[in-house]
User: What shape does this take?
Amino acid sequence: MNGNALIIEQLSIRFGSRPVVANLSLNLRPGKAIALVGESGAGKSITARSLVGLAGNGATVEARRLQYGDRDLLTLSEREWRHVRGKEIGFVLQDALGSLDPLRPVGKEILEALIAHRWGRRRGRWNRVIELLNWVGVPDPEVRARQRSGELSGGLRQRALIASALALNPGLIVADEPTTALDATVQAQILGVLQQIKARGDSLLLISHDLGVVAHLADEVLVLRHGEVVEQGPTEQILRAPRHPYTQTLIDALPSAHPRGSRLSSERRAVPVVRRTPEIADPLLLEVNHVAKRYRGPDHVWREAVEDVSFTLQAGRTLGIVGESGSGKTTVARVVLGLLEPDSGSVRFGGRTWNGALDAKVHERQRQPWRHEMAVIYQDPLSSFDPRWNVGQILADALPVGRFSGSERDARIAQLLQQVRLTVDLASRRPLQLSGGQRQRIAIARAIAVRPRLIVCDEPVSALDVSVQAQVLDLLADLQDELGVAYLFISHDLSVIRHVSDDILVMNQGRVVESGSARQVFEAPEHAYTRRLFAASRTTTLGLDATAKPLAKQPSIPCLEGNLE
Amino acid sequence: MSDASLRIPGRAVRWSALLAASFLVFLLLAAVLPRLFTANDPLASVPEAAFHAPGWEYWFGTDQSGRDIFSRVIYGVRQSLTIGLLAVALAMSIALPLGLAAGLTGGWLARGIGWVIEVLFAFPAMVLALLFVAIFGGGIGPLIIATGLGTSPGYARMVRGQVLSVRNSGYIEAARALGHPPSRIIRRQLLPNAMRPLVVVATMGIGQTVVWSSALSFLGLGAKPPAPEWGTMLSVGQDFIANAWWLTFFPGLFIVLTTLSTTVVGRFLQRRLEGRV
Amino acid sequence: MNRERLWRLARHSGTRLLGGALVLWVTATLAFFGLKLVPGDPALSILGTGNPTAETIAAFNHEYGLDEPLAVQYALYFERLLRGDLGMSYAQHSAVAGIVAGQVGATFQLTLSALLTAWVIVLAWTLLTAGRRGWWSGLGSGVETVAAALPPFWLAILLLAIFAFGLHLFPPAGSDGLRTLILPSLALALPLAGFIGQVTRESLEITLEQPFVLTARTRGVGDWAVRWRHALRHSVLPGLSLSGWAIGALISGDVVVELIFSRKGLGRQLVQAVQVRDLPLTIGITLVVAIGFVLANWLVDLIYNLVDPRLGRNIQ
Assistant: This one.
């Protein structure tokens, strides 16, 4: 605990002659939190790293003032930096699985900080490690400290990572995307730990692409775009009355802020289309009955099992499946697609038996004639494209064989590209040269090429920036109107699910814990897990009512500050 | 965060690849038209000119029978390259079916073949080759077969690895989801993608087999003197190492340069393939 | 290391050992059939010249069980193998086992020292030059490529010429003492170091860019400590898994190097045996090599698991 302030005036960073950050200024006082928000490439991470002198060999860092307390950070030598890092400024990265040495026990990682700064003596150090793990809320710290990061769950790992940053009581903590890649409930817990840090008087610099995450923690927000600060001010003001259009776009793009049916992006349809009403006499398009599956992966680890999963989907509607990692949603998707055979239960599609177990087993050739009625899009479209092919070839591969002559095929490809709002000249480009959003649109174009009745969407927007995510979600909504296609939409992101779904399925550890229409489930969740999930999500997103609710309280641990020095 | 300055500058890589490729072209020419480079007969014995040090008249010096080493090295290219190419061809023709079988089938068959490949790969190939020669005798023919056999497990292992990794890839699964029949997927996507790196490996392999076959000839089990084969020349020159180093230096140098060139060119092609250059 | 990990390691190693035994059994069987296939009468070959009479031949055949059915011969063969009897050398007219026992020590010495030397060179060279600014890294990589392309036998001759005959620093021949070991080990170690160095360097450079290395730096750990304490363990993994193959390559190299340096050893014996078509000796040496190679691979596997304990235990 100390009274040091971080003062940055006109910070600019460049690689050679290429500017990456320009003219960034802020004043971070003890006990406060400032957030740097922006999409990928905005320059937030490199700003954070320049504060600990790790911007990289090729980077030139310049500023009128870059000061922490009375230390001038611009003129530090490498040796002086080693004194600052960890002791005065602590750093937390995202994804502790990669941020902690996978071959060493986490206790040793925390110990390393103490050893590097010659803190205390042998026995005292280990006690300190246990103390730190306790403080961040890791149960059984003596046992956990001896485990490697791969043996801990996501939440515990991240806590251990935070513990290692806190080891020497730095007054300033820089957290670079500390909650990305974590499940909603775990995100809320980590934010709780960060809140604790702030509460004891340290200052926090938060980096995030997610406005919702920072809303509850940050006192001030800086919005970055392509290295420039487009807006800066108190959190309340930024969220309620943003001045810059880009900030507005970011807020607009958040699915949690918009109900179903409203648009997230500014993309307009070329021609307004009347929503195709599905034929009233449509039977159930998809019926999943009591499906169960357990299987081992190639490393002999049991993969997510599902048990007794049943649901239905009607033509032209969207069923959202939400659950955290390990909930079984991907397994369900693969069973529905017919890529996996269930241990028991069955799947009926379009009135026919589509997938079944044991003697009710269905061979791929039996599905063949109707295969084209079901399509899929993945989280990472790039890995689903043949690396040798360009866009045109990828789309041509999806077209039925032999039915098209050369020019007809080209026409159809052009039509598909237009339907997903891409220009026709992209047909000769390769996916590697395109952006994430463009690649996903191509994957969508490939999916609709076969004129499916159902598209399984497996986390299709999770890897995209918020503004791009908005465009893709709008596109999917438009296509549903134009083509009357049904979606099985899988995601861990509650706000996205809420935005797209007509009906919802909540899964936890392989079972369906709640199901019903979207409105029903969101307004009156019945199952305890669902309620916990929603509560956690509220703390990390901007709800429709956008009021900051207090975080789930952790049992308060007496602040051990007195002994920590 | 990647630091651009850590990588070897692309220019240096391209230049070295160019250099290596030129050397290979030179070798090819030497194999096909040795007369382009030397007028001397590699087998002509000129006793008075024995043990000339390298100089203006004899670039690489002469050996114990007065033969011009430079021309012997040049004529040796044909021998070495032929053996190298044939051995690689043989190795590939064994490795491809084996590797494909291990990669495309499943269950115990795949595991069994895979295990056999692993074991053969690590086993000292020289010992295997010598065993072969012991049973079937020496000479160029058995030399090619022994080399081919000895190096094939390495290629089989690679083929298997490639096939397995492509088989488990996202785009193959996407193709399945599109409803394509397995035969179409294997033919149109799996095989072409899995086999792509093989060209690269075969290129590098030629260099390796040249070393190999030279080693066997060096042991007296391949080409016999006075054939202008590099390994044989090394073996003969060994006896005179104290006084006439050039008998062994230059043939060996050419072996090294051949291996180096094929490796550099092969790696360059590989980076090209991966899109890194 | 706790008890559970020890147990898992033991189980894993045991399985590998069993696999190794299987390899040996297959090799021995193949050797048996190889011997049978070769044209020529073993009795004549062993008894040598002098026109043995029909009775002598018959007696010989009876003694060696060569007149029994194949299955019985096979069983006898294995029985003898397990007793350590590897047959009789055609050329040297003495027990193969005895010949091998006399030579195996020198070869083992050479192989081990070459492997250790190679690893020391690799570690020192890559730790010093990998991931550095400017031309250091490129130089390091270039040196490794050239080293890997050097055929051991040529390198051996060069070293012999320069250091033994030229500078008179080391003896050009012999098998006793450290000084005779240095040049042959180097001839084998340098090209191997080139190979292993390439994969280790690449691995080291990738490791140095990993998030956990960045985290270590943010704790105030210096560059050298980061390389030594974190990056090293990760980057030796690919090299370690290559070591199994490396041992095979070293044994291959032993053959020529022993010849060039006139060292005692199985390699030289093998070549001489092959040159006179002395099959029992050839096969005997092959079998011993197979045993050594299986054991060495098993050891490498054990070490790998000690360095990287992660196999299949992580929470997904």
Notes: The longest helix of chain B spans residues 182-218. Residues 8-38+68-274 of chain B form a domain with the MetI-like fold fold (CATH 1.10.3720.10). The interface with chain A takes residues 1, 3-6, 169-171, 173-179, 181, 189, 192-193, 196, 275 of chain B (CB under 8 Å). Residues 1-8 of chain B have pLDDT under 50 and may be disordered.
